[in-house]
Amino acid sequence: MDNPAAIRSATPDDADRIRTIARAAYVKYMPRIGCEPEPMLADFAALIGAGLVVVAEDRADIKGYMVGWPKADAYFIDNIAVGPEHQGQGIGRHLIEYAATEAKRLQLPAVRLYTNVAMTENLAMYAHIGFVETHRAEEHGFQRVYLRWSLGDRMARP
User: What integer pLDDT is reported at residue 1 of this predicted model?
Assistant: First the structure.
């Protein structure tokens, strides 16, 4: 993507669009997981109200979003999605770079996230960026893979 979408804090007016993106982006995983992935069930209004959501927007069109916050050891991405019609344009990577920039600003050494073990495409994409698996766990009935991207390694990846 030559001209990445602008990233801004989500507002209450964005909740419906974010919910639509989450459903569209995660629905393909339902047959693999056997139920709706957690992002499809998220209370986006509450997350936005808590100041935990940013959106990637271009020409007043929200193309993706990220739910994240700083923790003691890393900037944690809880949920990230790009509308299927905008996938492959670098928007997800732009949102992850935003998390890395926030981590550096807050003097945190890494970005952490998790994905479902059945979301193999995500595992490959995160590995390409530089994320390394730290552990796996079952939580809330979901098989999760936890990953960490050490920002000292960030210059090693394109």
Answer: 43
